[in-house]
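To: structure subgroup
Subject: Chain for Friday's discussion

All,

I'm putting the inputs and outputs inline so they're searchable in the archive.
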Amino acid sequence: MKVLLVNPYFDSHIITPPLGLGYISAYIKAKCPGIEVSIIDCLARNMGNDRLIKFIAGAKPDLIGLSVYSTFYAQVREIIRDVKKLDNNIKVAIGGPHVSALPSFSLEDTLSDFAICGEGEETFAELINQLSSGANDYSAINGLCFRDSGNAIKVNPPRKLIEDLNTLDWPDWKEINPAGYPAAPHGGLYKRFPVAPLITTRGCPFGCKFCGTRVTWRGSIRYRNKLDVVDEMEFLVKDYGVREFHFEDDNFTFERSHAYGICREIIKRKLDIVWACPNGVRIDTIDDDLLEIMKMSGCYLLAFGIESGSQDILDSMGKRLDKAMVSAVVRKTRDAGIETWGFFIIGLPGENRQTVRESIDFAKRLPLDRAQFCNFVPIPGTPLFDSWVKGQNFSSLKDIKWEDLNFYGRSTHTFSHLDVRDIAKLQKKAFMSFYGRPRIILKLISKVKLRQIAFLSRRFKEYILK
């Protein structure tokens, strides 16, 4: 049996090894003897849907697994329909946050055979073993959505989260070799290349109303063994030449002893690396001692999910963050010699021109080296998505133009007191106001590598000159 795991092509400026597919590939190889598994990352290969279908025609897989996020749901739907036209005998399984939030809809709308909800490793492996044995009874596979013999859609009970992350093998790095990726990591800039993403935890216990992580992780957080994390780092340095790591955890610093222990082990082993947290860390988890050991172990950048300069907006979104603390921690981080990056969202419910101005002014007052201003997008699995759908009076979810729910492009929807034209103008104004200062411009220019000029030029044109 041949299994092909696919990371689809979509309009993205972050091109890094897909850890989720890497973990699933490694798990299948460990738990499903005799199964041939490969990964194709269409982003890394710049492979659009037409080329992907030609590749599938030549590879002749029995089962295709596709990652699905809401922002590129429309592309995935097109891929699956083309696969079924090519060969209806090829089975297709979809998974990821979008699918976990909307399993029945996603299965029906895409014409997929299976939808995997939540953590995918165990569910996908059980599905493969069932398929390879020739059986067609999927009722006992928790976390699976499928069509029964009468073509009715069935959603099995959710699967328990994997209690011990240390029982999982490392991602299948042979299939997602970091050295084969373009210089377009999370955050755009880097210090050393190749760059490898890592996760040391799964989940986040916080309940920000705009965030969809709870639909997959259910408000929990689990930890990998600190020594195993650094073992993997050491392996990637020696076998793949990795020189920089990006911790992609939802909350790397939530448990202080966890982050501190990883830093201490990096120092102990004298790993010649640098690292960053471009996915963001909670500001209220940072202290002076942690910053000191992070810097000593090679940390050069921390991203912070600030979201808004309006305290009222922060409170209404359940962010549980005080602006005074934000100012203090960002300054401490800068003083520790670590670069800072702030994430802001424009167009949150309750937003108006004044609150956007507060965000822009706040970003400029803080000693941030970078800032990111994105559109608010209602993500399936969040209360804000549910209330938005009700307010739109859709006859069904099929009425949603998923491609218009864009974090950076011009949105066709508004969720605040601002109309879509206001949001587009204010997003551009925020970017130009923050980055238009000589200190920020000169610092950014000093960090750009020659191999990144084309990539960053395209990013600037598509995000700012749209």
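Points worth raising on Friday:
The CA atoms of residues 297 and 448 lie 23 Å apart.
The longest strand covers residues 299-307.

D.
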